[in-house]
Specification:
Elements (H helix, E strand, L loop, with lengths): L2 E2 H9 L7 E4 L7 E2 L1 E4 L13 E5 L7 H13 L4 E6 L8 H10 L3 E5 L4 H31 L8 H6 L8 E10 L5 H15 L7 E6 L2 E7 L3 H15 L7 E7 L9 H18 L5 E3 L6 H5 L4 H11 L1 H10 L3 H10 L4 H8 L3 H15 L6 H16 L1
Parallel strand pairs: 4-5, 5-6, 6-7, 11-12
Antiparallel strand pairs: 1-3, 2-7, 8-10, 8-11, 9-10
Helix pairs in contact: 4-8, 10-15, 12-14, 13-14
Length: 391
């Protein structure tokens, strides 16, 4: 977990004896900070991993050009911000450095020499550690709400401790990664999870992101369906930032619930949506429960045995016939319904003669012993075809 730079800045300012001023780069104050480092020479920037808050006294700096070069390298290392300790080595911050940081939205702070820099860094480290602890506790509580929903003591008190109200609205989304090569996939997922987290600082407590095995879970708090979808579209772009062509991301959004006790319901539906995406091989596409039409009724059903029974009674004879005779009547029937039960539209879409379409329809009626012109029959078959996609 990271802490936002603006929060660190406000925390330092609130403590007696700690003086820090923002000099430039105000637009980057929402940057997240994962750790703090001292960098005095350019060579040390190669050890930075990104999202650090950097401190420097300039003790090795000989002139303004050297200082500007150090600032540029720190910025290129994707640091979150820079604190310059002004004093005997750097009397003042040159205007060209201030301009550089303002142009790039790179936060630049000034701390006077009389301030004990070690204490300032300690304050930052303590806040980051607190954020890490808070994140781990929240993530564990949310996972308990997924997998131990009846044991309320495992998650409700912890979530309430961190400001999550019981009767708020909650929605779960999942991103599941599938790869033929599992080497280092956990490291990849952690990297992407941090990437997503960095990009969501604007939403603050309204979105929580954490990894679970080969999945990234996203918990939306008091977000509308459209807002959740918009954020997941944003997250999809962050998921795609990688150099691994062998990894596919399947993305599903559950439904909003009106109680913390029902988070598990949203998680289970999100899991089913992801499984459906995997079955259809629709990777890197966001699928929302709300956008699934009457199929969402089946996703909400816990008793899959009933669905299997219905499917077997209505459609299985046709599916079995296709398997035994190497035909495609089931897929053809689905397309026929998608074309509004129009022979003309179906023939045009499949590039078939109308007589061929009528032959296939007649054959399907013989196999199933039904009348496709009957409304109730068509409804039953449509439901069975939707179940075929889900089961």
């Amino acid at each position: 977990m990271a802490v936002s730079l603006i929060n660190l800045y406000n925390k330092i300012k609130s403590i007696d004896g700690q003086q820090i001023d923002l000099v430039a780069g105000e637009k980057g104050l929402n940057n997240v900070v994962r750790w703090v480092h001292i960098v005095e020479i350019n060579e040390l920037t190669s050890f930075l991993e990104g999202n650090e808050l950097i401190f420097t006294t300039g003790m090795t700096i000989k002139n303004n050009e050297d200082l500007l070069e150090l600032v540029k390298e720190i910025f290129e290392s994707k640091a979150s911000g820079l604190v310059i300790n002004t004093g005997p080595y750097i009397e003042r911050i040159p205007e060209e450095i201030i301009d550089f940081c303002n142009e790039r939205g790179f936060p630049l702070f000034r701390v006077p020499w009389q301030v004990y820099l070690g204490k300032t860094m300690k304050i930052c480290a303590e806040e980051i550690n607190k954020a890490d602890q808070r994140s781990m506790e929240i993530s564990a509580a949310i996972q308990n709400s997924f997998f131990n929903p009846d044991n309320h003591n495992l998650y409700i008190p912890i979530l309430e401790k961190y400001g999550f109200q019981q009767e708020w609205s909650y929605c779960v989304a999942l991103v599941e990664y599938v790869s033929d090569n599992d080497d280092n996939i956990n490291d990849f997922i952690e990297k992407i999870c941090k990437n997503i987290e960095n990009s969501l600082t604007f939403y603050s407590v309204h979105v929580k992101v954490f990894s679970m095995g080969n999945q990234i879970a996203v918990l939306f708090v008091n977000q509308s369906d459209s807002s959740s979808y918009e954020i997941m579209e944003h997250i999809k772009q962050r998921c795609a930032v990688c150099d691994r062509d062998d990894i596919k991301a399947y993305i599903g959004i559950g439904r909003n619930t009106n109680s913390v006790r029902c988070i598990y319901k949203s998680y289970r539906i999100a899991h089913k949506v992801v499984e459906l995406q995997k079955k259809k091989q629709k990777y890197n596409e966001v699928m929302s429960y709300r956008s699934m039409g009457f199929s969402k009724i089946f996703l909400a059903m816990e008793d899959t045995e009933i669905m299997h029974e219905y499917y077997s009674d209505v459609l299985e004879p046709l599916v079995r016939y296709d398997i035994l005779n190497n035909t495609d009547f089931t897929d053809f029937l689905n397309i026929y319904f998608e074309c509004g039960s129009s022979v003309k539209t179906t023939s045009e879409k499949l590039f078939l003669h109308r007589n061929t379409v009528n032959y296939k329809l007649s054959k399907i009626q013989d196999i199933l012993g039904c009348d496709l012109s009957d409304f109730n029959t068509k409804t039953e078959l449509l439901i069975a075809l939707k179940l075929k996609e889900i089961l």
